[in-house]
UniProtKB/TrEMBL annotation:
Biased amino acid composition, Basic and acidic residues: 333-349
Subunit field text: PP1 comprises a catalytic subunit, PPP1CA, PPP1CB or PPP1CC, and one or several targeting or regulatory subunits. PPP1R12B mediates binding to myosin. Isoform 3 and isoform 4 bind PPP1R12A, but not isoform 1 of PPP1R12B itself. Binds IL16.
Gene3D superfamilies to which the protein is assigned, alphabetical: Ankyrin repeat-containing domain (1.25.40.20)
Function: Regulates myosin phosphatase activity. Augments Ca(2+) sensitivity of the contractile apparatus.
Chain spans, region Disordered: 28-50, 333-386
Keyword field contains Iron: no
InterPro entries, alphabetized: Ankyrin_rpt, Ankyrin_rpt-contain_sf, PP1_Regulatory_Subunit
Principal subcellular localisation of the protein: cytoplasm
The name this protein goes by in its record: Protein phosphatase 1 regulatory subunit 12B
Keyword set, alphabetical order: ANK repeat, Cytoplasm, Cytoskeleton, Phosphoprotein, Repeat
Taxonomic lineage of the native organism: Eukaryota, Metazoa, Chordata, Craniata, Vertebrata
Residue spans of biased composition, Acidic residues class: 362-374
Length: 386
């Protein structure tokens, strides 16, 4: 039991250190001075444009007050219109923070003031994911009693029970899975299936909807690349999705696939001839943000891509040359046809004249005239374009 407590303490300390690092990066960056919807590499569900604009400096004050545990100050900020679900650059809310800090009192205060217990951060974690990972059984129970879903999947395809290590936590969550009637396998596939349906619809209609994540500007192609939805990725490319589309941070789908180590997605994008050297707003290429284990693969893909580009250029030149040759040949053929059509009326006029001359002749010359008419008809047949 003491060993379990020690492990739980280590995870909690790790979570707190991660949180402190996130706050340090956030408070020292330009993001605290930009609208919330224009930041984050997030992978929350896609939403349409037009979300309310939130100033990060206001969010920083609110999150700091929550972190300090000052409920009176938090209450004042809420009365002045602070958004209780405001997020930092990593998509973490005050409720995530209170959970990581194991501050049950702040958790209760925030939930009572309508904090969203199922809000996901940029990695798809809900507060319940955090509680399960840290082993905070009392906080997990509180979340469940106040509407937390045990079937929400994070960006790694994990539900809260997947992150639970203590038997008591896992038992609690799996019992709720049965009670809530959650199909975990279906939950894991739900996002991919929705994207697959949308991709097929866009392909069939020939029209792609401009749908982006509100904060980060991520598109369906970013999501498919980051999460390794290979079939979705191929359909979107086939539908004509812009390969090098950038989110608000300048990240392309290849940046996302490389960063999250999705090897197959990188291959699909590279073989479709995406730009592998495009830079984000920090001047980073996909190579710069890639998972360490993927850099060598990216270098191999770039070499392969260079060969494909060269072959494509050669093929295009041959096609262009062949097309020019056919067009030139067709021009001369049409010219001959035009000359023929100019001569044909003259032949017909001569034929009519011969007929009139023949009809005005005496009956004694009738046989000879018929022979002449027959010969004229043969000549006309020889001029007919077969």
């Amino acid at each position: 039991m003491a060993e379990l407590e020690h492990l739980g303490g280590k995870r909690a300390e790790s979570a707190r250190m991660r949180r402190a690092e996130q706050l340090r990066r956030w408070l020292g960056s330009l993001t605290e001075q930009e609208p919330a919807e224009r930041r984050g590499a997030g992978r929350q569900p896609l939403t349409r444009r037009g979300s309310p604009r939130v100033r990060f400096e206001d969010g920083a004050v609110f999150l700091a007050a929550c972190s300090s545990g000052d409920t009176d100050e938090v209450r004042k900020l809420l009365a002045r219109g602070a958004d209780i679900n405001t997020v930092n650059v990593d998509g973490l809310t005050a409720l995530h923070q209170a959970c990581i800090d194991e501050n049950l009192d702040m958790v209760k205060f925030l939930v009572e003031n309508r904090a969203n217990v199922n809000q996901q951060d940029n990695e798809g974690w809900t507060p319940l994911h955090a509680a399960a990972s840290c082993g905070y059984l009392n906080i997990a129970e509180y979340f469940i009693n106040h509407g937390a879903s045990v079937g929400i999947v994070n960006s790694e395809g994990e539900v809260p029970s997947d992150l639970a290590e203590e038997p008591a936590m896992k038992d609690l969550l799996l019992e709720q899975v049965k009670k809530q009637g959650v199909d975990l396998e279906q939950s894991r596939k739900e996002e991919e299936q929705q994207l697959l349906q949308d991709a097929r619809q866009w392909l069939n209609s020939g029209k792609i909807e401009d749908v982006r994540q509100a904060r980060s500007g991520a598109t369906a192609l970013h999501v498919a690349a980051a999460k390794g939805y290979s079939e979705v990725l191929r359909l979107l490319i086939q539908a004509g999705y812009e390969l090098n589309v950038q989110d608000y941070d300048g990240w392309t789908p290849l940046h996302a696939a490389a960063h999250w180590g999705v090897k197959e997605a990188c291959s699909i994008l590279a073989e479709a001839l995406c730009d592998m050297d495009i830079r984000n707003k920090l001047g980073q290429t996909p190579f710069d943000v890639a998972d360490e284990g993927l850099v060598e693969h990216l270098e191999m893909l770039q070499k392969k891509q260079n060969v494909l580009r060269s072959e494509k250029e050669t093929r295009n030149k041959l096609i262009e040359s062949d097309l020019n040759s056919k067009m030139q040949s067709g021009f001369f053929k049409n010219k001959e046809k035009m000359l023929y059509e100019e001569e044909t009326p003259k032949s017909q006029e001569m034929e009519e004249e011969n007929k009139e001359s023949s009809s005005s002749s005496s009956e004694e010359e009738e046989g000879e005239d018929e022979a002449s008419e027959s010969e004229t008809e043969k000549e006309a047949v020889l001029f007919w374009p077969f």
